């Protein structure tokens, strides 16, 4: 009876019987170590150099064909899969009998000679096989035809819940996370070369801030007080700027108690960097160069995004917030009159609650009317002050506008940046207004951080700051459309 027709309980019982037989034969099925000297990737990429040579590799059995005196197997290591030719004459009776007790999913160490079969497949003729780990639970059934896998664990939900299986059975998933690591490394290299210092700031914070978002709350027993998981790194990084660290960055885990969708996970990875004496123009130039640099490292200057091809090598566009709304609606909202904003929302059939303030309504207009049209990389600049409490007022003198940009690519926000507000009196006034909005029911408004304001009162130089969503950047550069596909263990509802 094939494994496909047996129950999971039957399969696991049968494998445990094999495990007992292996132990009875005096073999340790879980040895402490093994030293593979070679890899499938090197062998497969340069067969001529390896033909006839002895190699030692290790990996997981992914296919088995057991016959009388001759059998075949495929094992997979981090570099790929390679066929193993196993014969009783080469291994000897005892070792060959042990091989017959092995299953798909077991880890083995192989020594043997590299050769090609009559069909031209690069293989290893095994001279010894060592069991490194006996698999008790079977892998999902995967079918293979003409060298291609199909029906390879296709249930997305189960793949997220069992990422170890997803990585084993779907090589493209493994490749995504290799690329993710390469992208993050490139971000570090880029900023390090520009003289930035990588720092670490607290994840547990007595006061959350730096963004408009609902936090996760916990409790510290010894201190007898509430603490919050950080929603952003901003306020602590600005304190470092005040302290004289003129160029700082952090790649961090942030947490926001919000919904889960294509672009959002409650736990996500951010890059934030701040530079004294910069403004948002400097930040725009660096963000564009930074993204292009990361794209080059994974050969992704041109990427598919749905039906669109996005060329990251071209100069990014720059458009004003109010200009885009004016183009889309015909309204000039520079006075930020609540009734006028409400009329625009109604005219465009945008549903809004009766309790929304002007800033929240403008945010709705932006997200529903403008963002879907921003396919090519576009810096949206010069935001309303009432939705940007930490940004500096615009140098034009318009007190209603701040020096802020958001970068959109493929209709998604990738980056947020300010010419940072460094006037402590103005900052206090704005955070007090945020506190008022919070009292009125805006759960995402920011509380007053007295320690941060006091730090600003010591003097903060002109500063430019940037937040960049790493998960979304990885999505873009690897061609994945769901954030769960680029996070190894995304947040899921408990089964």
Strand order of the largest sheet: 8-12-13-20-19-18-17-16
Q: Which value, in Å, is the CA radius of gyration?
A: 29 Å
Helix share bin: 25-40%
Count of beta strands: 20
Low-confidence stretches: none
The CATH top-level class label of the largest domain: Alpha Beta
Number of helices: 16
Would you tell me the structural class of the helices and strands?
Answer: alpha+beta
CATH architecture descriptor text of the largest domain? 2-Layer Sandwich
Structurally, the number of domains stands at 2
> Span between N and C termini?
32 Å
Tell me the CATH topology of the largest domain. Answer: BirA Bifunctional Protein, domain 2
Q: Mind telling me the CATH superfamily name of the largest domain?
A: Bira Bifunctional Protein, Domain 2
How would the global form be characterised?
elongated
Q: Kindly estimate the percentage of residues that lie in beta strands according to DSSP.
A: 25-35%
How confident overall, as mean pLDDT? 92
Largest sheet: 8 strands, mixed
């Amino acid at each position: 009876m094939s494994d496909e027709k047996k129950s999971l309980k039957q399969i696991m019982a049968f494998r445990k019987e094999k495990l007992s037989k292996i132990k009875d034969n005096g073999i340790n099925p879980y040895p402490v170590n093994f030293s593979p000297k070679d890899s499938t990737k090197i062998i497969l990429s340069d067969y001529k150099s390896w033909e006839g040579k002895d190699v030692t590799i290790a990996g997981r059995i992914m296919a088995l064909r057991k016959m009388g005196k001759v059998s075949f197997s495929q094992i997979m290591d981090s570099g790929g899969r390679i066929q193993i030719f196993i014969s009783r004459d080469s291994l000897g009776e005892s070792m060959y009998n042990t091989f017959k007790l092995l299953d798909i999913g077991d880890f083995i160490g192989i020594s043997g000679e590299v050769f090609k079969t009559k069909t031209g497949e690069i293989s290893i003729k095994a001279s010894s096989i060592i069991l490194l780990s006996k698999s008790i639970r079977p892998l999902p059934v995967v079918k293979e035809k003409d060298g291609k896998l199909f029906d390879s664990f296709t249930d997305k939900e189960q793949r997220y819940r069992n990422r170890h299986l997803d990585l084993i059975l779907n090589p493209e998933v493994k490749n995504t996370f290799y690329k993710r690591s390469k992208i993050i490394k490139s971000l570090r290299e880029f900023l390090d070369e520009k003289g930035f210092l990588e720092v670490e700031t607290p994840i547990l914070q007595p006061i959350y801030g730096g963004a408009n978002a609902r936090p996760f709350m916990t409790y510290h027993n010894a201190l007898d007080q509430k603490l919050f998981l950080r929603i952003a790194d901003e306020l602590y990084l600005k304190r470092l700027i005040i302290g004289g660290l003129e160029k700082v960055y952090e790649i961090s885990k942030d947490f926001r108690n919000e919904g889960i969708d294509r672009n959002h996970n409650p736990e996500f990875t951010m890059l934030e960097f701040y530079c004294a004496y910069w403004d948002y123009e400097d930040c725009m130039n660096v963000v564009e160069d930074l993204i292009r640099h990361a794209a080059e490292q994974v050969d992704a200057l041109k990427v598919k995004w749905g039906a669109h091809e996005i060329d990251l090598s071209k100069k990014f566009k720059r458009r004003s917030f109010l200009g885009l709304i004016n183009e889309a609606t015909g309204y000039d909202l520079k006075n930020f009159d609540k009734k006028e904003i409400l009329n625009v929302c109604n005219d465009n059939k945008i549903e809004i609650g009766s309790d929304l303030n002007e800033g929240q309504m403008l945010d709705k207009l932006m997200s529903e009317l403008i963002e879907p049209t921003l396919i090519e990389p576009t810096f949206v600049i010069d935001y309303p002050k009432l939705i940007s409490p930490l940004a500096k007022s615009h140098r034009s003198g318009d007190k209603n506008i701040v020096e802020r940009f958001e970068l959109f690519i493929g209709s998604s926000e990738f980056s947020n940046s300010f010419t940072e507000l460094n006037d402590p009196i103005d900052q206090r006034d704005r955070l007090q207004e945020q506190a008022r909005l919070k009292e009125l029911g805006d759960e995402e408004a920011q509380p007053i951080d007295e320690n941060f304001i006091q730090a600003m009162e010591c003097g903060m130089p002109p500063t430019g700051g940037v937040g960049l969503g790493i998960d979304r950047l990885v999505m873009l550069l690897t061609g994945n459309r769901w954030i769960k596909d680029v996070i190894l263990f995304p947040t899921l509802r408990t089964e």
